[in-house]
């Protein structure tokens, strides 16, 4: 993927610690809009410190443009700290609720299929069921694509949250779904754009 | 600790911040604040005729004094009228605090009479803004507002206060400390950055300084001069950097870019090291970024890291306050003479006499400015609007005093000149303030002449009156095949009679020999004066580098 300048664009993950004040989200969103930066996803929630929220942005663009995003973010008075964590050792997740159409014939097939993804069925109705999936973007994209054959009625996604891995964390499975294992490429998914890898190390 | 109303707390807080003058215009939502003004005679309130005038006057006051300018306006249309002035201050990094009335708390969000979401509307054109919902939060908010406006890269801050919050009572204690965990303006630069900059400067054979508004904001005139003289580095200023370095200095090379001197643009082009100090590589300077000063290693010194590599890729960035950075840098810079390079610049100046004025019997704007410069010995405060008169003033006035040039650079706000000059005169009461106006911009804000007259501010207004939006005519000539649309004013008012209607002395000048006597007469008049310099034809401003081009496309000679 290239941007308007013909520079190969990547996807970068930026986290920001911001003061929890009225209007702070509008201020940040306004800055992105005005500077022409594209937010692929945004997740916001309270942080461990009272009065501070943490935001995770997924931003598309070449690295030098993303550096400008970070500088513009940091310039906002209510933004306490900005970190581009893309090149760090990090773990990230997003959550999706997917509502898929069912018939008596397909229901058990779907439940079996989603079982492979280690997801939870959170609601079952006569003609649909809703599953909850947590993981990297490509895992979610893969599931959405598979379920689409049965008729996906609604997808609700949270956007990415990410954190740095602590040093010397025990290896092994952390629940991350490996991108290659079901033969899906990471550009197979929805309109969120390509993601470099699953984020697992 | 004492109990006060919100309105009283605003006044007490402003006084604590050292404010002694406010430009404003009342309305329903801000009336409770005006209701407390009589208790605070130390706050001089200057009643403007339009809120845009209040914002520009606060801006002019701030630029001329180095202090924070303050504007008051009411909710809705009062607040929206501030917007052009706030955007002007934002683009040029000017510390202004605007206090606006808002509808009562219960009315917010109901589309109440004269309600506008002014904090929403001013998000992108203020450095920061606030909606204060409790009287107990006013003092800390105003303290933050002044701190944010005046430190780091300065800018406007708006504080919106609902009508009933002015009336609410609260305990008043002015806070001693600030709680701004996300706001840490840089001071001195990192040693590694200083070392990298020193390496570029010391190894250069053809260094040039590009000195911007940051030098003036940081009051780093002495430090800049020390750097330039120690290593014999020619100094090009940006448009807003004008008057940060004396123009009668042998190392002064004028300003570059679209209408700058050809030799200044060429100096940047021929340099092997470009040291940008408090400048943001505006497109009017850079033009085509891919062809801008290709042979130079670039050092960018700025307090705002968001400017680094935004418009032009640079080799070394130095984040910090300009004056502190120069204090760090200067002792490490080697003495040098750069004889050959300085001689080359002299040669460029001789070969490209960009300030030559055409010989003619007609009255020319360039000539008026040249005469003004000579009569005032380059020592007047000069305020301009935007357009041809602005470029002629920048080119032909030879500034010899620090911080004596006020102009709307970034936003390019026509009409800035009338109220901003008023603010500058309030800030520097004993000094000569000349506002150089176009007939177009003057008519945008001339209602402030009433304010000037009312407050007996002795501003001298020079209208370079060609009955045209002259820069529009020029662009239509050059880029729109002489297709003149909406560039002519065929029924301008009689500006002499207009001045007289405001109770202001009016003079008219049609001939070259009348220019100097009129300037002298204006200077000697104790009150405000409007001089209508009638220029009967639209001339073009040269040199000119067309938008987005480079020095290779520079048009030097008049057509």
Descriptive account of the structure:
- The complex is a heterodimer of chains A (201) and B (559).
- Chain A has 201 residues and is of the alpha+beta class.
- Chain A folds into two domains: 10-84, Alpha-Beta Plaits, CATH 3.30.70; 90-182, ACT-like. Chain A, domain 2 (Alpha-Beta Plaits), CATH 3.30.70.1150.
- Chain A has four helices and nine strands, in the order βαββαββαββαββ.
- In chain A, a hairpin with a 5-residue loop joins strand 2 and strand 3.
- The model of chain A is unreliable at 1-8 and 168-201 (pLDDT under 50).
- With 559 residues, chain B is of the alpha/beta class.
- Chain B folds into three domains: 2-172, Rossmann fold (3-Layer(aba) Sandwich); 191-351, TPP-binding domain (Rossmann fold); 365-541, Thiamin diphosphate (ThDP)-binding fold, Pyr/PP domains (Rossmann fold).
- In chain B, helix 3 (51-65) packs parallel to helix 5 (83-91).
- Chain A binds chain B through residues 18-19, 22-23, 26-27, 30-31, 34, 64, 67-68, 71-72, 74-81, and chain B through 119-120, 123-124, 127-128, 131, 148, 180-183, 304-306, 308-310.
- If helices are DSSP runs of H or I spanning 4 or more residues, what is the number of helices of chain B? 23
CATH class division of the largest domain in chain B: Alpha Beta
CATH architectural name of the largest domain in chain B: 3-Layer(aba) Sandwich
Fourth CATH level, the homologous superfamily of the largest domain in chain B: Thiamin diphosphate (ThDP)-binding fold, Pyr/PP domains
CATH architecture of the largest domain in chain A: 2-Layer Sandwich
Percent helix of chain A, as a range, is 10-25%
Q: Indicate the proportion of strand residues of chain A.
A: 25-35%
> Do you know the CATH topology of the largest domain in chain A?
Alpha-Beta Plaits
CATH hierarchy, class of the largest domain in chain A: Alpha Beta
- Quaternary state of this entry equals heterodimer
Number of strands of chain A: 9
Our estimate of the beta-strand percent of chain B is: 15-25%
Number of strands of chain B: 19
Describe the main β-sheet of chain B briefly. Answer: 6 strands, parallel
Mean pLDDT of chain B: 97
